[in-house]
């Protein structure tokens, strides 16, 4: 094989040293523009600041994982499920399958029920308080009540923009990379129907 056709590549260092022995410093106005957010991350605004709150001790993401894999897997993390069968029973009968309601009456955690509970706008709006907060993300209804103290943005923002509402747009704007279905798996209430 004739090696004369192939040029031996020079290393990056050799090439750089041959061009010049100076280093150029980027203009700070080009790479740090306070009016723009960080590429690929909409939660970082000008200067890279985020509106986070200090979490209480014992409320880290690892603590949330522990809660969901212990208490959550056993009982589910949906609050006031008993209320569904007393106050909302007539409404549930009109929108859900009988086998779904039977499973709820047998205290099966909502995230395990198949077919899942069907939640319409009227039922969703009833669950809009700090003690009983449901929201919709991508057509699935989740109970955020137990997650409040674990949310890095704090309780107030969840209550303001998510309580009893479809929070898909807000979620996608700030947390589109988060696997919400895994994070809130045991908080699953049902599917949203119009």
UniProtKB/TrEMBL annotation:
Q: Where is this region: Disordered?
A: 1-36
Cellular component, GO annotation: cytoplasm
The protein, known as: Cytochrome b5 heme-binding domain-containing protein
Q: Bias category Basic and acidic residues: which stretches?
A: 1-18
**Compositionally skewed regions (Polar residues) per UniProt:** 19-36
Entry-linked Pfam families: Cyt-b5
User: From which lineage does this chain's organism come?
Assistant: Eukaryota, Fungi, Dikarya, Ascomycota, Saccharomycotina
Q: Name one GO molecular function term.
A: cytochrome-b5 reductase activity, acting on NAD(P)H
Cytochrome b5 heme-binding domain residues = 116-193
Gene3D superfamilies per record: Cytochrome b5-like heme/steroid binding domain (3.10.120.10)
Q: Which UniProt keywords apply?
A: Heme, Iron, Metal-binding
Q: Which InterPro entries does the UniProt entry name for this protein? A: Cyt_B5-like_heme/steroid-bd (IPR001199), Cyt_B5-like_heme/steroid_sf (IPR036400), Cytochrome_b5/Flavoprotein_Rdt (IPR051872)
Which domain of life does this protein belong to? Eukaryota
Establish whether keyword DNA repair is in the entry.
Answer: no
Q: Does the keyword Metal-binding apply?
A: yes
């Amino acid at each position: 094989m004739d090696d004369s056709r192939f040029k031996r590549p020079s290393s990056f260092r050799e090439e750089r040293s041959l061009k010049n022995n100076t280093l150029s410093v980027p203009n700070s106005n080009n790479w740090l523009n306070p009016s723009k957010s960080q590429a690929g991350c909409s939660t970082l605004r000008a200067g890279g600041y985020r509106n986070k709150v200090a979490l209480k001790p014992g409320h880290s993401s690892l603590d949330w994982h522990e809660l969901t894999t212990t208490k959550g897997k056993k009982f589910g993390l949906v609050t006031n499920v008993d209320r569904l069968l007393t106050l909302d029973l007539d409404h549930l009968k009109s929108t859900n399958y009988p086998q779904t309601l039977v499973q709820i009456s047998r205290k099966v955690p909502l995230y395990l029920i198949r077919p899942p509970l069907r939640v319409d706008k009227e039922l969703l709006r009833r669950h809009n308080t700090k003690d009983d907060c449901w929201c919709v993300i991508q057509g699935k209804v989740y109970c955020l009540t137990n997650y409040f103290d674990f949310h890095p943005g704090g309780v107030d923002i969840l209550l303001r923009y998510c309580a009893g509402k479809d929070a898909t747009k807000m979620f996608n704007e700030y947390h589109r990379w988060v696997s919400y279905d895994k994070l809130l798996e045991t908080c699953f209430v049902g599917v949203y129907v119009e």
